[in-house]
């Protein structure tokens, strides 16, 4: 049975965000299927998806539906994929410093 997973992202570097990842719920690495996040009144971007528990899910944050707008580290360096194993009540909190463009 699928479980609800919430991903929250804080960034000052974007006015909209998308999640792209290995699971079908996160677009299956196809940027055309990247999932737009919702921005709340505090400026935190959030998305909630149903995923299979025990599945290993990798994902990245995008500023737009393009690999040219992928998240970067504080100094502009490449960063590894975020990796989660969905479980009931999982909340992932991320801070993204910058993007490729």
Overall 3D geometry? globular
User: Any idea what the radius of gyration is?
Assistant: 13 Å
Largest sheet: 4 strands, mixed
Query: How many DSSP-defined strands?
Result: 10
The CATH top-level class label: Mainly Beta
Number of helices in the DSSP assignment: 0
Fraction of residues in helix:
under 10%
Low-confidence stretches: none
Beta-strand percent range? 35-45%
Q: What is the arithmetic mean of pLDDT?
A: 96
Number of folding domains? Answer: 1
Distance between the termini: 38 Å
CATH topology: Immunoglobulin-like
Quick recap of the structure?
With 101 residues, the chain is mostly beta strands. It has strands spanning 3-10, 18-21, 35-36, 38-39, 45-51, 57-62, 71-72, 82-84, 91-95, 98-99. The chain has a single domain (3-99), classed as Immunoglobulins (Immunoglobulin-like), CATH 2.60.40.10.
Structure description:
With 101 residues, the protein is mainly beta. It has a single domain (3-99), classed as Immunoglobulin-like, CATH 2.60.40.10. 0% of the residues lie in helices and 41% in strands. It has no helices and 10 strands. It has strands at 3-10, 18-21, 35-36, 38-39, 45-51, 57-62, 71-72, 82-84, 91-95, 98-99. The strands form 3 sheets. It has a 4-stranded mixed sheet, with no helix packed on it. A 4-stranded antiparallel sheet has the order 3-2-6-8, with no helix packed on it. A hairpin with a 5-residue loop joins strand 4 (38-39) and strand 5. The protein starts with a strand and ends with a strand. The relative contact order is 0.31. The model has no long low-confidence stretch (mean pLDDT 96).
């Amino acid at each position: 049975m699928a479980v609800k997973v919430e991903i929250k992202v804080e960034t000052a570097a974007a006015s909209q965000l998308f999640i792209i990842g290995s699971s079908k719920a996160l677009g299956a690495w196809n940027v055309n299927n990247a999932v737009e996040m919702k921005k709340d009144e505090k400026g935190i971007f959030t998305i909630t998806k149903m995923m299979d528990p025990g599945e290993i899910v990798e994902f990245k944050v995008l500023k737009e539906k393009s690999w040219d707008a992928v998240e970067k580290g504080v100094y502009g360096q490449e960063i590894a994929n975020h990796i989660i194993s969905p479980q009931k009540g999982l909340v992932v909190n991320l801070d993204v410093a910058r993007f490729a463009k």
